[in-house]
Design a protein that fits this description.
The structure is a homodimer.
Chain A: H1 4-17, H2 38-41, H3 47-53, H4 57-65, H5 71-89, E1 92-95, H6 97-114, E2 125-129, H7 156-163, E3 167-172, E4 184-185, E5 189-190, H8 206-213, E6 219-224, H9 230-236, E7 239-242, E8 266-271, H10 275-286, H11 303-306, E9 318-321, H12 332-347, E10 351-354, H13 360-371, H14 375-383, H15 415-438, H16 440-443, E11 451-455, H17 471-479, E12 483-490, H18 510-517, E13 528-534, H19 540-557
Parallel strand pairs in A: 2-3, 2-6, 9-10, 9-11
Antiparallel strand pairs in A: 1-3, 4-5, 6-8, 7-8, 7-12, 11-13, 12-13
């Protein structure tokens, strides 16, 4: 077998060949940190293509259904913009635009002949995280060792999306192992943040985050085991949803830690358009995934739940804001975004109370113990095929391999020991549920708190290698609560000055202080600031609707 | 600490004291194998009490709701019969009739004052497997080491049932560890089969099976991780349901192998009345258990699914009969029950095809590997508190401790190894689902097979210690398919003669032959013969309705 670097070189050559050569552009100079304007100024896209790629998912679907825009036109426009995006932030892995255009042409034919759409996603280009197998393509998931492994069939979700009329056209970048909240691997390299390329796009669905922020895709599929949809959504300033276990089919996709049955990775939508969340979830759930994936939950899309039947029909909601998680206090821009949101919700007539977090630190530890029960062996066995190194830092200079490592510190535990950790986690789940139920006494609505609003991370997108703390998202995975990401503002050095009498609070511990010390408004300049809305297990319908309510309140308050 | 036998003696004294002394009877001589007639002939129950205890669940609930019968009357009648049953087959563990009668009196008061029932189970006595904690009572689960551990609160399901108006009054016997398909432990001893006390009642919910067969309870709750609701239901000749994971709340109950998140134990109803299955499931699901138990699935009771919306409204069903599982061929009475059922269904206008089992042997092995990943440590740590022995045989003479042991043969595996087994199991789940879907091409209904009908075991209730093979139930746990048990016939030495040109088939292997050699119609005389109906994950509504259809077809064909 050739040295692993030779395998990478060969794979990269093939990737380059998969890019239409006439779409290669001269990227802006490295000093240009914010590249979000480049796709529209570079000259590759015509005015109509710019219009198409700036259109929201619901409107795109309407214009596709009415044949105002053809699927070929829409797929071409997003493909061009995706290729430009890739040249800016290195967000793509597999690129398969020709088959996508062929599929788009079929869809156009079908609509022309029958007057009907194929399904609810007719003609919509969809990007996919580099786990979602497509027949005939490799799924390397950033492992050199998996180069050359061609899928014999589609992942169930890919089949579902195609049946719904979607047009997969590119796959997107991730970190090696997926278990890191940034996106760097030895095969495809690093994805950067389009709002400021010196910052991370987040991870593990960082390629999706960056691509969608540049409008190179109207909607993409990420996966989330500890925040991997939400962190890049938040860092890149887009919408995202982490559904509950089993709401979206996972079967037939590649993954890390396979066979780990406890804290599961889930697929969820990432999109520029809030409408994309409902469109995606409704289409996927209505396809009856439980007949295609044994782990998919037999629960129909419930429009009553979307209309907040269990939340007083949405008239008089009570949101709880978690200002910090009792472990790491968020940076000033995050605090400001929470204040903006609180004011907007109150102005819209909703009630806002404070959320008191319980046992978040322990939940984070338990989650890591469950993953690390066998992860060292998983990584070692996977990488040993080619001898590629296990990446231990995502810093630019690869200097700091000790701090904030998302790699296991030991070799694993026994199954019985794993069961004990899993038992502890189930006990905390019950405790947290009781804690939430008990809020019924303080909301004044007769119900418990309708949703929690909280940071997605203690900071906006940090510099590469510095995303050290994922517990603002991970706790909800451990509890299996669905959660969305929605944009609120961007880091503004004037409004978000570092308090020079720092700290403004007493630090919980040294780690908390270290995170605070990292803050420098100039360094984070222009980074999007998003928040998270959290609901109850399998309540995706209500969580999406409440996010729409919050989003509308924010827009109205502006 | 006293020797464990002293702890048992003391516990048994307390159990004896919990029995109303005036309800002690003189049991029939040991030569009486069939004791099912004794409760009505022993003289303890008056005619009305006999009538009450012979009444089906739906009628009981109607008469309770109309105050024709008081909750006190009904609870008294079943309590008396339960105590008689206990003296016949040793089926009870905790006995708490006084608090039950006090609760019944409250319910009567409430109905008298308000004219309303408390809930859908108003006044219905319900027996509970010895895992379901009740505040103030011990939950030993047959472990000497757990004697003296008093529950501080009710299990979630107990709360739900009480809110629904049910009256818990006794708990029922199990095997030590729960992981054995018979019911014997060092604290409470052995439960026998009321149809023939030389046979096992099955397990692990064997106390429930025996109690309900003697009509000492109209409805009970068992648990099922590999057949523990279905095996005793089948051996004792009653109805039972193993729901999918999370349909019935488990939180707050005691269990074996806690923290094992993969192949989960579930609670399900066991009853003399087919109506009891729907009554129980609808009441529990309508209580929104997902707000009380983090693992309970947010899926409402779906009356459309009960009316077989996904199965052509039940007009033209296609059942698949699995005659054997490719591992162990069933005894003649089981074969005959399948033939009876096939003929009855065809007579009722339904289609019947053959079910081809795939990978049942492997599924059984994988399931055992998952449980045994940590079970040796689990049992050892639990029993080490008092030094009670880990029971290794359930034979009467304790002779054969090698054959058919349901104890782990080694000390466990690593978490990573466990993940590999769990991964294999998920792959087989997908394969089995595809296999089921593929039957759409042979049913002629346009749908895949609506339900599978198969044995619950390769035999009717065998002699004590001889229940060696559970895979007819366990595979459906591994696949998470809901399954019911329904009675078909009883072993009849005339109709079920052993074929003297035995075997009638070529044996799969020595084990298959050993199971066949065990058959002797005289030995199994009078044992009930039940079958199993299997549906798709989270399709409890349809599975119950289809069982009602099969039951009606069997009645009509008689």
């Amino acid at each position: 077998m050739p040295h692993w670097t030779a395998l990478v070189a060969e794979k990269k050559q093939r990737q380059l060949k998969s890019i239409p050569q006439e779409w290669l552009v001269t990227p802006p100079p490295p000093s240009t940190l914010d590249v979000t304007g480049f796709p529209e100024s570079c000259g590759l896209l015509n005015a109509r293509e710019i219009e198409i790629t700036n259109t929201s998912v619901d409107v795109l679907l309407k214009r596709l259904a009415s044949a105002e825009w053809t699927a070929v036109d829409v797929t071409t426009a997003f493909s061009k913009r995706a290729i430009v995006a890739h040249q800016l932030v290195n967000c793509l892995t597999e690129i398969f635009i020709d088959p996508a255009l062929a599929r788009a042409a079929e869809l156009d034919d079908y609509l022309k002949k029958t007057g009907k759409v194929v399904g609810p996603l007719h003609g919509l280009p969809i990007s996919l995280k580099d786990q979602l197998c497509i027949k005939g393509l490799e799924t390397t998931m950033g492992y050199v060792s998996w180069i050359g492994q061609y899928a014999e069939k589609n992942a169930v979700l890919v089949d579902v999306l195609i049946e719904c009329g979607a047009v997969p056209f590119v796959r997107t970048n991730i970190p090696q192992t997926l278990m890191w909240p940034e996106s760097f691997n030895s095969v495809f390299g690093r994805t950067t943040n389009p709002h400021n390329v010196s910052l991370t796009s987040g991870g593990s669905s960082g390629g999706e985050g960056a691509l969608i922020a540049l409008k190179g895709s109207p909607l993409g599929v990420g996966s989330d085991i500890g925040g991997s949809v939400r962190i890049p959504s938040a860092f890149c300033g887009i919408y995202g949803l982490r559904p509950s276990y089993g709401r979206v089919p996972y079967c037939g996709a590649r993954n890390s830690l396979e066979g780990q049955d406890s804290i599961l990775s889930v697929f969820g939508p990432m999109t520029n358009s809030l409408s994309g969340l409902k469109v995606f979830m409704k289409a996927v759930v209505n396809s009856k995934p439980w007949l295609k994936d044994p782990l998919a939950v037999r629960k129909k899309w419930d429009e009553d739940e979307y209309e907040l039947a269990d939340h007083g029909s949405g008239k008089d909601l009570c949101f709880a804001i978690m200002w910090d998680d009792g472990v790491v206090v968020p940076h000033p821009p995050i605090r400001r975004s929470l204040e903006i949101t609180k004011a907007a919700l109150q102005k819209a007539g909703h009630k806002v109370v404070d959320w008191k977090p319980i046992k978040h630190k322990l939940l984070g530890e338990v989650t890591r113990d469950i993953w690390n029960a066998g992860s060292a062996e998983d990584y070692m066995i996977t990488t040993s095929v080619t001898g590629e190194p296990i990446i231990a830092t995502m810093e630019l200079d690869h200097a700091d391999t000790t701090a904030a490592s998302f790699r296991p510190q030991n070799g694993g535990i026994t199954a019985y020991q794993l069961w004990q950790v899993q038992k502890l986690r189930q006990n905390i789940r019950k405790e947290y549920m009781d804690h939430w139920n008990a809020t019924a006494s303080e909301t004044g609505t007769g119900r418990a708190v309708d949703a929690i609003i909280c940071p997605a991370a203690p900071y906006a997108a940090p510099p590469h290698g510095k995303n050290r703390y994922t517990n603002y998202t991970t706790v909800w995975n451990a509890l299996d609560y669905p959660a969305t990401i929605f944009p609120v503002t961007t880091v503004d050095p004037t409004l978000d000055a570092r308090d020079e009498k720092d700290p403004p609070h007493r630090f919980y511990d040294q780690f908390d202080q270290d995170v605070y010390e990292m803050y420098d408004p100039e360094k984070f300049k222009n980074a999007p600031v998003c928040l998270q809305l959290v609901g109850r297990t399998l309540e995706e319908e209500a969580v999406i609707k409440m996010t729409e309510i919050v989003d509308a309140a924010l827009a109205a308050a502006k």
